[in-house]
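Final report, Chapter 2: Outcomes

The project's central promise was a pipeline that accepts a single protein chain and returns its three-dimensional structure in a standardized token representation, suitable for archiving and comparison. That pipeline is now operational. To close this chapter, we reproduce one record exactly as it appears in the project archive, with the input sequence first and the structure output second.
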Amino acid sequence: MYIMMIASECAPVSKVGGLADVVDGLSCELLRKGHNVEIILPYYDCMNHSLVENIQGNPVELYVPFKGKQIKCTVHTGMVHGNVCYFIKSHSGERYFDRGSFYGAGDDEERFALFSVAAVEFMLKAGKQPDVIHCHDWQTALITVLLCYRYKNSFLSNTKLCYTIHNIKHQGKVTHKLLDTAGLNPSIFTELDAMADTLSPTYMNLMKGGIVYSDYVTTVSPKYAMETRTSELGEGLESVLSANASKYEGIINGVEYDVWSPEKDHNIPVNYSVDTIDDKYKNKEELRKKLSLRNVFKPIVAVVGRLDAQKGVHLIRHSLLYSLNKGLQFVLLGSSPDNEIDEYFHHLKHYLRRNSDCCLNLSYDEELSHLIYAGSDMILIPSLFEPCGLTQMIAMRYGTVPIVRNTGGLSDTVFDLELSQKPLIERNGFTFEDFTYEAIESALTRAQFVWNEKPYTFREVMITGMKTDYSWTLSADRYLSIYSKMLSGKN
């Protein structure tokens, strides 16, 4: 099968968040399974060019019809983790991808509209005819609309379109003018069953277009698929997803075990496995040394990730102080895009600077994150909502027990030791329901009790997590099933 991935980022070359990991991880697994996978990406000035193997100019030269003129674009070809990648570079006066950052410009919608048109033009000019085009998030949703209308008579008309929602909160709400800019007649899409935004009908919604005009829609966990169809977590697209429920499902993201595995992780001092699990505690000793924590008999609770409202930042703040008061150690690694939150945590770090039971690292350090996963006993993820989440799955691979709020992908991957209906052999952590201080305190207290009073049981929970397979293998098989269903016309 020939699959063309089109996305705004791909690890490790251009990574902001989980989208990049999914594009890379899924593509690599599909390649391992013998399929032909290629990826189209923007050529950002800030991407890590050194991680692209053998990058060179492509003979295809594009003049992309956009904004009523022909915008020159060139294409660079290289290899990333064995996959052929095409990087589209714009040479317009707007310097669309020469901004020093991936996102955050005032004209992001226009930037990615240009990229979407250029991606289709490149496939046509280069004679690419994939079986499936797989688009991701609002940045490339317009491709599904373009192929259904502006390019409906091209040789790509038989190609099937899969569209994945990674975070429904960011939808790409645009004016009618943007569709006109991309060569589409806005009047065609003003109906509510087309692209008109459900909450603000005078705007067009790119993500809604991706949902309506694709052949199949996925999101990154079964629970999140249900939540986005049936609750306010749909961010206004609940009715659209319900109307398209027959072609919508959630598939849990996978973890790249070539990168995240204690057996072969080069970023930790002592490798270990289920059979040598006691060696995990040598990493705990090293973590304490590195972070100047006291070497005492107590569990380490960790938080790794972005500090913002979605991640339950106020519960993280409360849990830090609660944990220290209850005799646990606490390690935090992460930063915040919000100045107020960032300032608060810097103040808290200063306040706790002499406390040898905690350490706050208010940045992101990839190497340190590996040691934290390996050296901690528990990891805390109190998200308000979580489409999938990789943190809990990575932690479990390292024998670090997750304490999570029961939402989205966390609900699909973490099963409470005492409260879950799953067989005991599948219970791998601690969960809580309510987004409250009392709920997270209860989960922390239960986890600490088991660690202190039932060490054998706690170790069984660790082992269960380490043995659970959250690799890309099963997820890629599900995507292949969807691709086959689309191609057979059965969806």
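Archive annotation: The mean pLDDT is 96.
This record, like all others produced under the grant, will remain available to the consortium after the project formally closes.
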